[in-house]
Design a protein that fits this description.
Blueprint: E1 13-15, H1 37-52, E2 79-81, E3 91-92, E4 95-99, E5 105-107, E6 115-121, H2 126-142, E7 147-153, H3 160-170, E8 176-178, H4 183-188, E9 196-200, E10 205-211, H5 217-231
Parallel strand pairs: 1-4, 6-7, 7-8
Antiparallel strand pairs: 2-10, 3-10, 4-5, 6-9, 9-10
Length: about 240
C-alpha cells in the first residue's frame, strides 16, 4: 500500500485495471508446523477485537506484507465525519473505474442514483477483516432500497488469491474491486489508513467519511445510509 499523502491529489478521475490471478489457494504442507508466537498473539488479538467490536485503524505502510498479521499496527483514532458541505450537501465524489474479482469493471458514475458505500480494506489489516461482516449486514439489509457497497481491496496483484479466500470465508456478497496501487484509496483517503469508508449519496456527493471501526460505528454509518436513502436525488 502506498504511504500517506500530505496533500489532496489534484486529479478528479482515475481509471485502473488490475491483473487477476487464477484464484487457487496453494496447498498447505502435510507436516505440521509450529505457529509463530507473534502470529498466535495476533490471532488472539483479532478474536478479542471481534468479541468486543473494537477495530482500531491500521497505520499506513510503504509495503505491508499481504499475508502477515505482523503488518498491522494501530494508527489514528477512530473518526466519523461528514464531508465538507457544498451546494448539494457534500463534496463531489471523484470518479474512478476498477476491475473486480469477477473481471468486470465498475465505474462509480454509472451508479449515480444509488447510495454507494466505498469500503477500503486489505487482507493484512485485522481491523478491516473484523469490520467486513458488519458491512455485509448493512448491505443485505438495505440493498433492495438502492444501497450499493463497493469493497475496495488495496492488496497487490500477487495477493488476489488471498482476497478471494477472505471473500469466501466471510461470505461477502457485495462487489470486490482491486485497487492494487492504492490510487483510489489515496483520492478519498490521503492518510491511506485502513479501514476507511466513504458514503456517496444519490447525487454523487460524499456525505460521510469514516476512519477505523469501533462500537457505535455501525449505528452511525447505518443512520447516514438511511438518511441518504430517504433523501432521494436532488435532480
Amino acid at each position: 500500500m502506498n504511504s500517506a499523502c500530505d496533500n489532496e491529489p489534484s486529479v478528479d478521475s482515475v481509471t485502473l485495471r488490475s491483473t487477476q490471478g487464477d484464484g487457487r489457494v496453494p496447498r498447505t504442507a502435510s507436516r505440521r508446523r509450529r505457529t509463530p508466537r507473534r502470529l498466535r498473539s495476533g490471532t488472539v488479538a483479532l478474536a478479542l477485537a471481534l468479541a468486543l467490536g473494537v477495530f482500531p485503524a491500521c497505520a499506513p505502510s510503504a509495503s505491508p506484507p499481504a499475508n502477515s498479521a505482523d503488518g498491522v499496527s494501530t494508527g489514528t483514532a477512530p473518526e466519523t465525519t461528514p464531508a465538507s458541505t457544498g451546494e448539494a450537501g457534500g463534496a463531489v465524489a471523484a470518479d474512478f473505474e476498477l476491475v473486480g474479482l469477477d473481471g468486470e469493471a465498475i465505474r462509480l458514475t454509472d451508479l449515480k442514483g444509488q447510495v454507494v458505500l466505498l469500503d477500503f480494506w486489505a487482507t493484512w489489516c485485522d481491523p478491516c477483516l473484523g469490520a467486513l461482516p458488519h458491512i455485509e449486514e448493512l448491505y443485505e439489509k438495505h440493498k433492495d432500497a438502492g444501497f450499493v457497497v463497493l469493497g475496495i481491496s488495496t492488496d497487490g496483484p500477487e495477493s488476489v488469491s488471498q482476497v478471494r479466500r477472505v471473500v469466501r470465508r466471510l461470505g461477502l456478497k457485495f462487489p470486490i474491486l482491486l485497487d492494487s496501487e492504492s490510487e483510489v484509496n489515496a483520492l478519498y483517503n490521503p492518510k491511506t489508513s485502513l479501514p476507511f469508508s466513504a458514503l456517496v449519496n444519490r447525487d454523487g456527493r460524499i456525505v460521510l467519511r469514516q476512519e477505523s471501526y469501533t462500537p457505535g460505528s455501525q449505528d452511525k454509518l447505518e443512520a447516514a445510509i438511511e438518511s441518504a436513502l430517504a433523501a432521494g436525488s436532488a435532480k
